[in-house]
Amino acid sequence: MLRRIKADLDIETTDMPLLQALFEGCVYPSEVSQSFGMPAPMVSQMIVRSVKSGLVERQLDPEDSRRIRLSLTEEGKRVLESAHRYLQEGIERSGLTQEELQQTARNLIRLSRTLQEEA
Q1: Which CATH fold topology does 2-118 show?
Q2: Which end of the chain is more exposed for a tag (fewer CB within 10 A), N or C?
Q3: 75-114, pLDDT tens digit by residue?
Q4: CA 115 to each of CA 37, 41, 85, 112, 118: distance values in angstroms, whole numbers, following the listed order
Q5: pLDDT cut 70: percent of the chain above it
Q6: Are 41 and 32 in contact (CB under 8 A)?
Q7: What distance in Å separates the CA atoms of residue 13 and residue 50, rounded to the nearest whole number?
Q8: Are 61 and 68 a contacting pair, CB within 8 Å?
Q9: Do 67 and 28 contact (CB within 8 A), yes or no?
């Protein structure tokens, strides 16, 4: 599935967390880093690739010119929506029931919290 997303949408799947974070309301690179527990240099690389691909825009913060604000471009929104559709199709093909999916989500959240606490 990830190969299909990469090939069809011409995006590095490792950059998807950046697009998702911006979609969810993150504006600053530090918010993206905190949201996904990723080191700042990794987020910076994702930003550079996504800006070059035309998926993300960088703008100076009007309230603090030392900060950069990020936003999805229209193309970035289209790519993210398409990726969501691919993932939804994969979930549907998995054959898991709604209850099984909810339990899986709860377990992943619990695991994520545990790993973050240990970091």
Answers
A1: Arc Repressor Mutant, subunit A (1.10.10)
A2: C
A3: 999 999 999 998 899 889 999 998 998 998 888 888 877 8
A4: 10, 20, 29, 5, 5
A5: 97
A6: no
A7: 11
A8: yes
A9: yes
